Structure prediction request, 443 residues.
Amino acid sequence: FHAMRAVYLLVLSSLFAGWILLHATAQEEAYISYLGYSVIRASITSDDQVAVIMKEGMDVWSHDSVPSVGNLTIMVNTEQLHLLKNMGVAYHVINPDMAASIAAERELLAQRETSIVISSTSTNTSASPWYNSYHPAPEIFTYLQQMSVSFPSLMQYVPAIGQTTQGSSIPAVILTNRNSQNQDKKRIFVQGGQHAREWIGPATVVFLVESLVVNYTRDERAKELMDNVEFYVVPLLNVDGYIFTWTSNRLWRKNRRLVTGNTYGVDLNRNYEGALWCELGASKTPSSDTYCGTAPFSEPETKASSDWAKRYAPFSACLDYHSYSQYMLRPWSHTNVPPLDDAKTKYLGDQYVNDVQRFFGRVYISQAWWQMYYATGTASDYWTTLLSPSSPPYSYTVELRPSASEGSIGFQLPPSQIIPTGQENWNAFANFVLWVTATTTTV
Prediction:
């Protein structure tokens, strides 16, 4: 039976891999090369400069911890770079050739191993060859389905919590020890992949999922969590956008909603219901990378995530994994007035980043989102206020590697950093959930 199952999963994985390769080949001529683009670190000193950057549609990758002005990492073409220079903006180039970076990554991805079997006897997440590379969406979903077959008492694969704007299924997983005697389990919601180009987000969420099930018999924290907590996980919400980054545009951010003419995409993390919707840090211009959509939950992806979360709420905590800059961001994103439970939320966020740092020395920053920049329609603000108003969860947006000072890497975090990113966040995540669900008083 096990041999037949392994063969079946290998064939299924190969079929999915073949589909994505065929899809990519069909669109190869349309793949955006980013020829003539570079990445700079610019010192922005006025709101007028910010306005020009927004008007010209420059791709801002990361911000300092101040609203509006400060040091920004920006991807620009030659004309945009001349414009900034003529405005007197001080900058230095940190990646002079984005086209070369894109081409090198694609060459590396072509060599990846696609058919990987997970066994119920697996004992070490970080030893899995799966994490030696990033993977297209079908391979991610096959791997999770395969994992659920290998660990049926710990993991349930949900084929679809809804569909995307282009009709793709959005899978999810539920993790807990079904044989546990605890009938009053706390619940945690985890999400990744809202922004298509942030590949390390889904990769890390899959790493956390596998760590919970594989470590059940070897890590006391995993056993305690799986016996006493239920995890509801959406590893890759923006399925269409993520597929598009593999087939056409590596740096695409939004979903693939056809908005008007030849303009596509809504920023899912500006599409949740919330205060001051689309008034701050979001745009009503369809071509903008932060386009908020026509209304809260206009997008089937955010609606599916919200509806599924509401079905199982309340949650003790909700976490949304993104990249990059290494932050643990707590509410609010839309105002600088702290929420009532800000002290506890800050404490838990501080503990998370401390546990990350203890593993490899990576410094993540714990702060309120608004201290970086204002944004409305975000998942974390929605979870805190409207998901379960009578019992709000502790909600965070986790920005993963690389750091802002490593902006030359940006969203193309090398595959060699998938495992260390997963390890440091597993250490922090496990301790965080133990604290927030009050299953232990010492970590």
User: Anything to note?
Assistant: Residues 174 and 423 are 21 Å apart (CA to CA). Confidence is low (pLDDT under 50) at residues 1-29, 439-443. The two ends are 41 Å apart (CA to CA).
